[in-house]
Write a structure and sequence with these properties.
Helix content: 10-25%
Oligomer: single chain
Strand order of the largest sheet: 1-18-17-14-13-12-11-16-15
CATH superfamily of the largest domain: PRC-barrel domain
Shape: globular
Radius of gyration: 21 Å
Structural class: alpha+beta
Number of strands: 22
CATH class of the largest domain: Mainly Beta
Largest sheet: 9 strands, mixed
Number of domains: 3
Length: 348
């Protein structure tokens, strides 16, 4: 593990005064850690503000970093029974002030949607059923259906549907790598319900300090038994991922997290990930290639908006920064890549 950086975090957590002579390290607000459980019981209403049901859970395509479906339950009693309907996330509009989602569909569409048996894995994982549910609500599936080739057209490129799993089953799964090293367990998922994307997986490391790491969702694969997640990385490279300090929820306040900032100056403005399939696919492709290259001393994050790629993070050498830039350029175009990685020996 990255020992100096880990010790800095550890001493901050136990309130040690040995660092009082050093400038106080600022932390970028990572926002509220919205766990899957917090989505349960959110009301779903129609355009007229009438209750249709509650969110029961999510269907996740982790490899593509997407929320496949939102499960809405209607007519249940004390959390039991009721009809479960699968709704494409793009058909739900989140309220900014209340825990309510509004369904952008007619009542007839919602009531006539087929029921999903979420207790049977064959039902909620069926690509044919998912595609039919999308089209029932007037949404074209983002993925290529079984028997169809993957489309790479400019307008609506499609990807292969990854392994589908309910989000609440992903929570608590052990996380390791191909070398059988353990990194901890899945603490929560950071997602954007409105965009239908899973931004990252928050992995809680074992031990007293409960440190966590924020890792892009597309960096993971399920193991062969589907009982855990695999990160194709070593402990050293894993330790160089952004780390966060978790504040547990208490006194009716939700749990929050603070992410360690990158060392060095970066250009102002948030790097926003585009919603198009082309942008999402390019980000996933570049992220995987950089990860598989195993560039020593590099911690990079990739975002793409309107085909413009931004690389941010830290590197210990100019060569490591350049290598990451070359990978991004090869997957995109030279004029579309903005390499903002900061070179600093302190990164390691």
């Amino acid at each position: 593990m990255n020992l100096p950086r880990f010790l800095l975090l550890a001493t901050a957590l136990v309130g040690c005064t040995a660092l009082t002579a050093q400038p106080e390290r600022s932390h970028e607000d990572f926002g509220q850690e919205k766990t899957v459980q917090k989505l349960d019981h959110i009301l779903v209403q129609n355009r007229d503000g009438e209750n249709l049901g509650r969110i029961r859970g999510l269907n996740i395509d982790l490899a593509n970093g997407r929320i496949v479906e939102v499960f809405v339950v209607t007519g249940d009693f004390l959390g039991m029974g009721g009809k479960v309907t699968a709704v494409p996330p793009s058909r739900l509009i989140s309220s900014l002030t209340t825990e309510i989602c509004y369904l952008d569909a007619t009542d007839a569409q919602f009531k006539s949607a087929p029921e999903v048996n979420i207790s049977r894995r064959g039902d909620y994982r069926s690509s044919a059923r998912i595609a039919a549910a999308y089209r029932h609500f007037g949404v074209e599936p983002y993925f290529a259906e079984v028997g169809n080739s993957v489309s790479r057209t400019v307008d609506r490129p499609k990807v292969q549907l990854g392994y589908i799993e309910r989000a609440n089953y992903i929570l608590g799964l052990p996380v390791g790598n191909l070398q059988n090293e353990s990194f901890g367990k899945v603490a929560s998922l950071n997602f954007d319900l409105a965009k239908g994307t899973v931004r990252s997986v928050i992995v809680r490391a074992p031990g007293l300090f409960k440190t966590s790491s924020v890792i892009p969702a597309s960096a993971f694969d399920f193991n062969s038994a589907r009982t855990g997640l695999l990160l194709d990385d070593t402990k050293r490279e894993f330790a160089n991922q952004p780390r966060i300090i978790v504040t547990e929820g208490a006194n009716s306040q939700p749990a929050t997290t603070k992410e360690e900032p990158f060392v060095g100056e970066v250009s102002s403005g948030a790097a926003t990930q585009g919603r198009s399939y082309a942008d999402l696919d390019l980000t996933a492709s570049i992220s995987r290639k950089i990860r598989y290259a195993k560039i020593k001393g590099l911690s990079a994050q990739v975002t793409t908006m309107d085909s413009r790629v931004i690389l941010r993070g830290t590197a210990t050498t100019d060569a490591a920064k350049a290598h990451a830039g070359e990978i991004a350029v090869a997957a995109s175009r030279l004029e579309n890549v903005d390499n903002q990685i900061v070179v600093t020996p302190a990164a390691r």
